[in-house]
Amino acid sequence: MNTFLAFGREHVERHFRKTGQSVYMHLKRHVREKVRGASGGALPKRRNSKIFLDLDTDDDLNSDDYEYEDEAKLVIFPDHYEIALPNIEELPALVTIACDAVLSSKSPYRKQDPDTWENELPVSKYANNLTQLDNGVRIPPSGWKCARCDLRENLWLNLTDGSVLCGKWFFDSSGGNGHALEHYRDMGYPLAVKLGTITPDGADVYSFQEEEAVLDPHLAKHLAHFGIDMLHMHGTENGLQDNEIKPRVSEWEVIQESGMKLKPMYGPGYTGLKNLGNSCYLSSVMQAVFSIPEFQRAYVGNLPRIFDYSPLDPTQDFNTQMTKLGHGLLSGQYSKPPVKSELIEQVMKEEHKPQHNGISPRMFKAFVSKSHPEFSSNRQQDAQEFFLHLVNLVERNRIGSENPSDVFRFLVEERIQCCQTRKVRYTERVDYLMQLPVAMEAATNKDELIAYELTRREAEVNRRPLPELVRAKIPLSACLQAFSEPENVDDFWSSALQAKSAGVKTSRFASFPEYLVVQIKKFTFGLDWVPKKFDVSIDMPDLLDINHLRARGLQPGEEELPDISPPIVIPDDSKDRLMNQLIDPSDIDESSVMQLAEMGFPLEACRKAVYFTGNMGAEVAFNWIIVHMEEPDFAEPLTMPGYGGAASAGASVFGAAGLDNQPPEEIVAIITSMGFQRNQAIQALRATNHSLERALDWIFSHPEFEEDGDFVIEMENNGNANIISEAKPEGPRVKDGPGTYELFAFISHMGTSTMSGHYICHIKKEGRWVIYNDHKVCASERPPKDLGYMYFYRRIPS
Prior knowledge:
- Zn(2+) binds at residues 146, 149, 166, 179.
- It is found in: Cytoplasm.
- Residues 271-796 form the USP domain.
- It is an enzyme of class 3 (hydrolase).
- By secondary structure, the chain is of the alpha+beta class.
- It has 6 domains: 11-33 and 53-111, no CATH class; 120-235, 2-Layer Sandwich (Herpes Virus-1), CATH 3.30.40.10; 254-407 and 739-795, Alpha-Beta Complex (Cathepsin B, Chain A); 414-549, Cathepsin B, Chain A (Alpha-Beta Complex); 590-629, Helicase, Ruva Protein, domain 3, CATH 1.10.8.10; 665-701, Ubiquitin-associated (UBA) domain (Helicase, Ruva Protein, domain 3).
- Strands 11, 17, 21, 22, 23, 24, 25 and 26 form an 8-stranded mixed sheet that branches. A 5-stranded antiparallel sheet has the order 5-4-6-7-8, covered by helices on one side.
- Helix 12 (318-330) packs antiparallel against helix 14 and helix 19 (590-597) packs across helix 20.
- It starts with 8 loop residues before the first helix and ends with a strand.
């Protein structure tokens, strides 16, 4: 009752021992099956109207069959003395007021996500008793057009008579002539659904009478009246029944293994994650990550130590939240099968009672997504981008020397060749996943694809059902070949020619990771910049050998490009501003900060990048991020001892006499963001009295400069707490080995872009494949390994 933190039964004792806090409020919700009477049962009720817990109700429990009762009491430790609430007689007035305030307060998640909670769509009052005319109207799967004009976009289907009419701009910020609204005014038919938004998860429904977007709980039935199947997404015409038309093999059906009787799985490692509203990208990634032993050991294996040494507010500690989530997924406490008596009762009554299985990752999502403009929203996201975001968080919050994300880390060798001189340069960079291009030109069923496309277009023109989908079949070997092919380098500057030239780049593995993550680059942009997805089938094998992609380094007969940097051109206005005055942190260009943040970098790192590059734009700041992203304080908030003086006076900002002519960190950061070594930048600034322009000239006039070990030692001895030590870095942490792998998990995406659709995960456990579809965990019958988006391979020991 002091911190207002909540703990489960098994952890409250730990918090008591750790803090000495002795007064806790015990909250519990009871779910009971209703007792049916002559009237058919009562509405859900609460035992005491004063006690109202703002908790989520289980979506699987029908409120017509179950009722809720909330219980609250104070518990005094260490004797576990209980006081039932409310209790005005025994408790002091101040304690009673505090208890009432807690019980009547809203969930913190409703406060954190007002867009998610307070703006939830209401159920239309017309949905339950909507009149639908039996006029024989059947809606084709495509080729729609407004019945009163020629518009073919922003079209709405009236759910009463099946009219297809255009909307107005205020429906979804797109154009229209308002014929759908006119139709409502003429006929009074209240509900319409927007064509093009219908998926197995629902659609955009608008109520003209209620003048707002609404939910229609009977939408599937209302759409079926006009021949639209929400799952299969194909229409019917001429009174034909669904079973008289060959259904399309949509990715929604294949990936979710629809139509099969999947056996539910229970126990440790078979716990699902409840969907919080477009959170399936997070659930799929976390299921795959916590199937890796190194992550299990790092977090769940260290649970007592992590919980015992967690900060006073564990909701803001990454390792605590990772451990909590991992324990929930792996303990089996939240994935228990129904007892035998319940199964017998269900069989006898021919009914299925839902089980209370799966966990809600609200606190985890709130923490890992805070300050991120995309993941903190309630919109669908890219699972690959979240995976990299998670790796970044693991890197920044490592537990001692243990870093489980090292299992994904590998080195990429990039070979750049000047096409004119044929000279080469080899560099290495760190990466965490392999991005594999889709080689559409290598499809093995091109004739079928051409025939399908002709038939599909003809069906759209004639408003007939679409033919069965034909996917491009792409050999994995073609995708690997495309990965290893040379690619042109834009704006390549040849140090051999001292001028721009044509250059090509090839990439190889300088090391192979212990766990290889492969992303299929299915998402791209069309010529009109509209996102689109390649709906392809790639023969991803259970056993993968990529040893032929091992880097070979400089080969005999190859000549290296001279190690000369291109000339630096700084805009005059930016140069003058940097030479004369350091920017005030309050004047940071927020537009550049947000551009970088949208790329997935931490917000504080973006602010520092823009600050240390003097508001020179997002591109220069991006270079600063690339140079500094391995530093331990990369994502720490921007803290400066002072600012606002001239650049030459910057030394007084950072220090004092003990630093012995230490250059301002801002100017050092600008030079290193241009690609120069930090030691080189500091040496140049010292030699030119901290003049940026003269320091650049000094660097170009001293190409023989090499890193001096004595200089490094001097910096270690003289630097203060604000200056990062110049000690030689330990080098990238990689776990190299053979490039032979075995598939153990893959994440699949359904939908047209990363901004919509649904993710699920398949994981191979105990010799069989298991499908994780949000909170549902079942044995897989036909794992669609050819339709995945991200694949997880583990190395096969040699």
